[in-house]
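ok trying this again, last paste got cut off
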Amino acid sequence: VAIVPARYHSSRLPGKPLADIVGRPMVEHVYRRAAQSHVDAVIVATDDQRIVDAVEGFGGLACLTRTDHVSGTDRLAELAADLPCAVVVNVQGDEPLLDPAAVDALVAPLLADPDEQMTT
């Protein structure tokens, strides 16, 4: 499962996940690129209903997380704790040009060797 942490209240660019890129929010570009990889699902983990609404508006899956997380990894961990999957991929929410093949390459060692715990 690929999880895309997407925080609305960024100090440098508030609302960054909803920033318009060629008529679509950044989070949609990231989501669609991640979905082109061979993951079973993509979920946006967010602290803001506006992002949930945007993701659901294009047919994606989003979950609200607590608002007190210090990092995207913390936001991801909140969701991952309840997911019945063997591998969780942290897809950065501000990478609209994500290469889906990079996600597949990242996951490959984990699928090939169950003893592997993490890759980056």
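PB: full thing came through this time. The first helix runs from residue 26 to 35.
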